[in-house]
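Subject: Interface between my chains keeps coming out wrong

I've been trying for a while to get a sensible model of this assembly. When I model each chain on its own everything looks fine, but I need the whole thing in one frame so I can look at the contacts. Pasting all components below, labels as-is. Any help appreciated, I'm running out of ideas.
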Amino acid sequence: GMGRVALGVALGCAVVTCAISAVMVAGRVRSRRRWRRVVRVLEELEEAAATAVGRLRQVVDAMAVEMHAGLASEGGSKLKMLLTFVDNLPNGSEKGTYYALDLGGTNFRVLRVQLRGQRSDNLEHTVDRQAIPQHLMTSTSKELFDFIASSLKKFVAEEENLSELSQVKRRELGFTFSFPVRQTSVSSGILIKWTKGFAIDDMVGRDVSECLSHAMSRGGLDMRVAALINDSVGTLALGHYHDEDTVAAVIIGTGTNACYLERADAIIKCQGLLTTSGGMVVNMEWGNFWSSHLPRTSYDTDLDADSPNPNDQGFEKMISGMYLGDIVRRVILRMSQESDIFGPTSSKLFVRFILRTPLMAEMHEDDSPDLRVVAKILRDTLEISDVPLKVRKLVVKICDVVTRRAARLAAAGIVGILKKIGRDGSGGITSARVKGGSQGKMRRTVVAIEGGLYTGYGMFREYLDAAVREILGEDVAQHVILKVMEDGSGIGAALLAASHSASSVDSVQLL
Ligand code: ADP
Ligand code: MG
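Reply #2:
Try treating it as a single job with all components included. I did that and got this:
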């Protein structure tokens, strides 16, 4: 009767309980195994992306060696070390109203700068920023330049309307075009290749200033291109305008590049280069730097292979804002495929560049205790929801590894330049110390920096600044100053347009 039924129920319950706990144990074992697999992916990433200071010093040396090689002969290095024909940097004496165009990444800027003939901490200028319509990046040169010229024309009309100043002389423009250009003079040059996702085939091999001038006359805008430069040269110009100890400039935005002031006689591939100053700004095009010492991961290899410019711009692809978010996406995708900690693999994880670097920065810098921002971005952008805290922490860690490597490599690049010009403290008394000055006192060295990745991403900036100090050591690092030059690439172009305006004479000669 009742007793047997009760016993049966009790037994049944015991069996069920056993089964449930067996399932739970198996589940825990499975989830532990899953967790171990993603941790392994993270550890492999950390190992492949490691940037111990010894490794960074190898990158420093490689950078200095490649700089020498690129200066010695055409094609002597992956570093093109391009002449800019800029031999004098602004010093504050510039005077007049000048325009500038800044094209070369995500944003496009039009500027007008008013120069008073004496150095001023607050340079009077107006800027108009807009995103470049995506389709123009891969259309025709005519479409791209007509767009630029019409934006400029509108801007000029508004500005001149506001200022109510009658136009006294022909307008002059500094054009910042941040792609590799073989300069033929300070105001003209030929596009060597596109980078950063631009691909307009009919433009390669053509004179950039001429394309702009033609578009301006088509649009009925009367303006002369007085200087054709890239963003790093503009940033160096603004840096030097404010502080004459500025000897180099670095861009860390959508892409990355650097330039510095070199002695004309050190540019061996250009024998007989005469400049009034005895120096010339060299555009390194360091985005294309490569060395076997760079800590490369399988994600970098895949990103490169999937890009429109494989085997090109290797340094840029590890460092700059266009790519960092996509490296993170690739790591998350790999983890999601190795285990189901992110749930079923979201189709969004296969979409290239869907995780933009500013979003990556937001996740990295999420300081809410439950990582709410990480959860939101995973959900809204990657369509991955209900991610446990432990996994969200893992995502933050991925961002950290990728950004830390990028920032530290950029720092090594900067120290490489300092080494090349004898400002890294290793060259002994003569090179880095004040000439004729008291022994042991090092010369002040300023590096101007611009770009949204450096200015907008706090963790990146901290890692870069710390790595420069770490590589140089405190004694030397106290004499090296990294200075942000907001809008330097554009304002610097206007400054260079002023110093190379129609009224001034060209001082560079090629014998
Ligand atoms: P460009 O002149 O090349 O268009 P910017 O100097 O304006 O570049 O920088 C824009 C790029 O910098 C963006 O594409 C992005 O990759 C990166 N960036 C901008 N702001 C941030 C931010 N807050 N966090 C991380 N990256 C950022
Ligand atoms: Mg820029």
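Reply #3:
Confirming on my end. The chain has 16 helices and 15 strands.
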